[in-house]
Write a structure and sequence with these properties.
Helix content: 55-70%
Number of helices: 4
Distance between the termini: 47 Å
Radius of gyration: 26 Å
Oligomer: single chain
Order of helices and strands: HHEHHEE
Shape: rod-shaped
Number of strands: 3
Strand content: 15-25%
Strand order of the largest sheet: 1-3-2
Length: about 130
């Protein structure tokens, strides 16, 4: 069973009102349908704009990658974008690039300030 949307319900109401001869009420509900359509169009445009913005960050992350393994913190530091570019956003884009086969990831050991080492993920262009 599929869920009936608000728009579908309004269309049904308009049909019932027209059959009953209530054109004024039908026009009012038709206006509500038009408002719903406008709202949906704006939401779709905003989602496309946000997706395009995200694609710019993906392109920037891909441009920073080299054949040499680089940590997420270093990749984030190389990207110009101010406060909008966070480690979380860069990690998300790197995961997308790995899933697309553009990049590869490996775990490497990095020395810490106290002389120990810790394992972190590093990324590089996939040259296979």
């Amino acid at each position: 069973m599929t869920k009936t949307t608000k728009r579908e319900k309004f269309v049904s109401i308009v049909e019932i009102l027209i059959n009953a001869g209530e054109t004024d009420l039908a026009n009012c509900i038709a206006h509500e349908i038009e408002l719903l359509d406008n709202k949906a169009a704006k939401a779709k445009a905003k989602a496309a704009e946000k997706k395009a913005e995200n694609d710019e960050l993906t392109d920037a992350v891909a441009a920073v990658l080299t054949d040499e393994l680089t940590t997420i913190a270093d990749i984030t530091a190389k990207i110009d974008g101010g406060e909008d570019v966070t480690i979380h956003k860069v990690t998300n884009r790197l995961t997308r690039l790995v899933n697309a086969g553009v990049a590869k990831k490996e775990q490497i050991s990095v020395p810490t300030a106290d002389g120990k080492t810790r394992k972190v993920m590093a990324y590089a262009l996939n040259v296979d």
